[in-house]
């Protein structure tokens, strides 16, 4: 893990989305026409530099990263939506930090240490304390999600010989090695957690002659890791979890398309695997019974209870999906990028305004439909997008 990844995360909102093209059929499609819904936009500012990026939010807080004076380093920040103040969360002794998510009093992310390594952290907004989650004997760790009192991610093992998924309890400070489907020598990582109990991710599977990766489900109550398989294909990868549903991608590994990629949804209760086809192969997300993803050009949602697939209908360019919360899907459309918010209940799409310039990206939404992201803030004769700041979009009337 390197500082390069940290900085890429911090400036993701200001970069153009790189999308992999795909094609194919998946489920039934329902067309719709976009209907604009007004949003107000607030420039969240910076920590003294000229660049900031909004990554995630909840009802009280927006988190992201910002440059310091001189634009040499990025620090994680928390923006209080009530007081409209931005706080520098600092680092674990290194020069840079970035955020991944926020839930109530806890912000999770990654930071460099004094040794130049990268470690996962939890920052408590009440105590103003950043806790280093450490490793399993190696030099680095990375955090991906939080649910309830549990944080999940991956950490390097002794001698950096491997990397294992972990679960960290913010109450006890206990970090649990979830192992891998291939035993102690295998590699695994956790992508998400649901209900404070079910963790999903991807792990090596010991097969001859090669090592194959499969999606897994880990139950914190039974301490059991279950191989979700690949539905007859060659490999699978879990990307997200919500409620009792895991989503991800699988490779078919069969002729005539041995490397064909399909999206999937897995029901934890029934253990049923649903093939979402080759329209849902990138940035696959899930919230409740709705999955969202893209084929690399067009973004779609799928109602997992009916099987109906709906294109987001945002024009002729490519569309990327960055997140889904409740009934709101967010991402960006290109050329641009231009941030959008799409509501699954009304099937309406809205291009979100930038405070200045043109370009913007949307990273995540909260349950009320507010959106965090990054947007151009200045317009001048030489460049219409000379500065990018973290922003908060709020539906009017909320």
Task: Describe the model.
The strands form eight sheets. This protein has a five-stranded mixed beta sheet with strand order 1-26-25-24-23, with no helix packed on it. The chain contains one helix and 33 strands. The protein has one helix spanning 3-10, and strands spanning 28-29, 39-43, 52-57, 61-67, 74-80, 85-90, 93-103, 106-113, 118-124, 129-132, 137-147, 150-157, 163-169, 175-177, 188-194, 198-206, 211-219, 224-227, 235-242, 245-251, 261-267, 273-277, 282-287, 290-294, 299-303, 308-311, 319-325, 328-333, 338-343, 348-351, 360-365, 371-376, 388-395. Mean pLDDT is 87; it is low at 1-36.
Secondary structure layout:
Layout: H1 3-10, E1 28-29, E2 39-43, E3 52-57, E4 61-67, E5 74-80, E6 85-90, E7 93-103, E8 106-113, E9 118-124, E10 129-132, E11 137-147, E12 150-157, E13 163-169, E14 175-177, E15 188-194, E16 198-206, E17 211-219, E18 224-227, E19 235-242, E20 245-251, E21 261-267, E22 273-277, E23 282-287, E24 290-294, E25 299-303, E26 308-311, E27 319-325, E28 328-333, E29 338-343, E30 348-351, E31 360-365, E32 371-376, E33 388-395
Parallel strand pairs: 1-26
Antiparallel strand pairs: 2-33, 3-4, 4-5, 5-6, 7-8, 8-9, 9-10, 11-12, 12-13, 13-14, 15-16, 16-17, 17-18, 19-20, 20-21, 21-22, 23-24, 24-25, 25-26, 27-28, 28-29, 29-30, 31-32, 32-33
């Amino acid at each position: 893990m390197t500082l390069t990844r940290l900085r890429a995360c911090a400036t993701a909102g200001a970069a153009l989305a790189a999308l992999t093209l795909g094609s194919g059929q998946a489920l039934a499609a329902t067309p719709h026409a976009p209907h604009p819904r007004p949003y107000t936009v607030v420039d969240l500012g910076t920590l003294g530099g000229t660049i900031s990026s909004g990554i995630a939010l909840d009802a009280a807080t927006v988190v992201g990263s910002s440059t310091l004076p001189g634009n040499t380093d990025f620090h994680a920040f928390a923006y209080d939506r009530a007081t409209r103040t931005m706080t520098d969360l600092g680092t674990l002794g290194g020069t840079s930090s970035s955020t991944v998510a926020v839930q109530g009093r806890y912000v999770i992310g990654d930071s460099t240490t004094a040794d130049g390594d990268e470690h996962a952290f939890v920052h408590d907004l009440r105590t103003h304390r950043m806790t280093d989650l450490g490793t399993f004997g190696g030099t680095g760790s990375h955090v991906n999600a939080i649910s309830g009192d549990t944080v999940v991610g991956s950490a390097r093992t002794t001698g950096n010989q491997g990397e294992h998924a972990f679960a960290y309890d913010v109450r006890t400070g206990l970090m649990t090695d979830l192992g891998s489907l291939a035993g102690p020598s295998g590699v695994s990582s956790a992508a998400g957690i649901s209900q404070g109990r079910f963790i999903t991710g991807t792990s090596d599977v010991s097969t001859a002659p090669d090592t194959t990766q499969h999606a897994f489900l880990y139950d914190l109550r039974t301490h059991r890791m279950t191989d979700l398989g690949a539905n007859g294909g060659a490999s699978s990868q879990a990307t997200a979890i919500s409620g009792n549903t895991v989503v991800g991608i699988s490779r078919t590994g069969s002729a005539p398309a041995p490397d064909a990629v399909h999206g999937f949804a897995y029901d934890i209760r029934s253990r049923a695997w649903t093939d979402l086809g080759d329209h849902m192969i990138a940035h696959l997300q899930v919230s409740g019974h709705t999955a969202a993803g893209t084929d690399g050009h067009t973004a779609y949602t799928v109602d997992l209870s009916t099987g109906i697939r709906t294109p987001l209908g945002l024009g002729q360019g490519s569309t990327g999906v960055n997140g889904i919360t409740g009934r709101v899907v967010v991402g960006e459309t290109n050329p641009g990028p231009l941030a959008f918010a799409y509501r699954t209940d009304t099937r309406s799409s809205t291009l979100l305004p930038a405070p200045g310039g043109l370009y913007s990206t949307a990273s995540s939404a909260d349950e009320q439909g507010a959106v965090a992201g990054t947007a151009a803030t200045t317009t001048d004769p030489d460049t219409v997008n000379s500065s990018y700041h973290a922003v908060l979009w709020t539906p009017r009337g909320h």
